[in-house]
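Question thread 4412

I'm putting together a teaching handout and wanted feedback from people who do this every day. The idea is simple: show students a protein as raw sequence, then show them the structure tokens that encode its fold, then repeat with a second protein so they can compare. Below is the first pair exactly as I plan to print it.
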Amino acid sequence: KIKRDKRVWLASEPQVCATTSLYAHHTHLSLKAVTCARMLASRVFGEHSCGCWFEAKMVLASVDDIIGSLEGWDPSTGTSGLSERDITNVCLQVIEELQKDAVLVRLEAPVAIVGDIHGQYSDMMRQIKERGHPSVTKYVFLGDYVDRGKFSIETATLLFAYKIKYPANVILLRGNHECASVNRQYGFYDDCKRRFSMKLWKTFTSCFKQLPLAAIVSNEIFCIHGGLSPGSQPTNERAHCPDAKNRILQAYKNNTFCQPHTMMYMPLDLRSLDQLEELERPLDTSTCPIVVDMLWSDPDPDITGWGENDRGVGFTFGPDRVQSFLQAHQFSLVCRAHQVTLLIRFIFAGFVPPCSAVRTKVV
């Protein structure tokens, strides 16, 4: 049980001030403090004393408090009871930590790689319990922390708190659901607005725009949420890309709603993955086509080259495109999320096991 010192200041004149300390459990702290202050004010100064006022000065919970509170929280009992001020404080702090990471993060194994979470808080905690606490285990999360599940807010808040507390051990990549145009439609916006405010959703959106796009583990494994882009291929391979420009113009004519790809698409000349680090953040996906592809594209074992994606965004890519990418950048494999599979790991395009020095657990 976490207890904190809450001081409520009451005054009718500058010279008159009363202080009381409130101790409460971690749930509904702000509401309890303000309610108690109102009751005390009415007793001291009278219910109709128009000259008196009070201000509840709440002490923000520390990151350690929030981590302890969420780790000890049972989702079956309902929402966690975190205050909007505490969540906002975590978001503001994590922006500073995320800005310290490059858009393309490089790290060494061993590392646990975790796919889509989608607000499934209990599943996330089960994975962490099995593979080790972030204080001792290095993690790469591949994005899609919000939407669909019941506890997107708690999921994102705890991951942000872990990032603040253990910045070197927690790498948070961006998924396609960490885009305002997507999570506004699939539940996260409604969760924030119903439980807190639209302002909190906008605060989360600001955090999502700071997330890195990709990670490279031990110079062997390329980690990304979605998939490859024609812009990430050698220049002589671009001919396999379908006529994307005409496809995007057609999307304009059809007035496709809130789709990141409704822009003039011209593949970037990505001569080296290091060029990803030149992208400036906050990163708006609507201004960078290659980012859209990396968040949305899917593999297709039945095609050669590039194909149309049924999602309406990004591309599909065949095994030959994967092999070309691996050879061009001297990687062993691409590790991605973005799709549901009945297998623990979906092996695609001739999986090449990493060298013995790379001890990686894929979740």
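The second pair follows. I'd like the answer to focus on this one:
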Amino acid sequence: MVEESDSIESVNNIVKDLVDTTYVENRTGGNFIIRNNSSPSGSPNSTRHQERVTTTNNTTSVAFGDIESVQSGLSSISGDASTSNLINNNNRKANVKKTPKKNGPSFFPKMDTVAHSRKNANRLAVPTGAETPSPFPRKAGAAAPTLTLSAWQYWSRLTDLRQMDMQSALDQMKTLLSTRPQVVYKTSYYRKQTKNHWARDDPAFLFLQGVFLIIAAVAYSVAFRISVTGSISFLLYTVVWNWLGMGLALATLCREIANRQLVGQQTATSTSHVRQQVEWLYAFDIHCNSFFPVFVVLYGIQFFLLPIVLGEGLVPLILANLLYAAALSWYWYITHLGYRSLPFLGNTEVFLFPIAAIALVFVGSVVGYPFGFGANAARVMARFYFM
């Protein structure tokens, strides 16, 4: 490295002594103009040591004249290959190729276009199950494989309160009492799109409903001043029979009706559609949703109206029977909404038929009271449970 730097310094000194030139670049014209500072302009020395400049379209080639002879002499004098390589590199740098700047459109697309295309590419399309073709052949009318939550897994989660979303369950209960109870079943549709099953996998709704029923049973036992044995009996009747027992029976019955009679004919017979069926846990969810308004009316409102509805006469009869008719009609209306939310079912209006029967019984009890055919539903139930 020391010898090479000494050679470079000796070359620079020799060149400075022989030719004192400055290279001025004319950037507007694209040519290199070489002037000799040691000789006046126009003298033979300036012409001798001046470079010959050749300009093409976009390339400026500078050919050195007598400097090349100096280079060869220096190479022979120094005998150093590094000096010759240094001078050759200087010659290569003199051959400059200037590429004109293009004002046309850029080769790269605009960033917003790229971002927009990536955004569209990353957008997810949620399959509906029936529209996505299956890679495996399926027989006509065969049921589709699902990730349905088993009943054992659902019941086992009741023992772990940390897995329950109580706030979501309370919001659903409040929605069921509003003028738009069908909104509750939209969450079932979202579960089908994401988890491929309709039923709840969170038993918080079931847990809270059981707690409310226990509190109501205790309150009625205190109001009627029954014994401890009678209180336990009423609690079992309320939770095991009225809620769970009737719920299991009605959920199974309505599910069988829906799967046997209400499944769309196109879905049931076509080979290009996946056959879907009502899940039993979803049918039980519908029962729990429908039972909550019954609980509010018959276990909540009726509790504060006991002095009135347990009285004798036409007015207590109308009020008591109206409460029971409204609660039972509300039950079947929400049941109808639950089955109507399933897109593969048709003619779900059959679940509204019990409402007509309930209305007929209510009118008959009021009209038949003067003739001794009317019965106060609140007095009948109080006599059955507490007397």
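Top answer:
Good format. For the second protein you could add a caption like this: Residues 55 and 90 are 19 Å apart (CA to CA). The longest helix spans residues 228-262.
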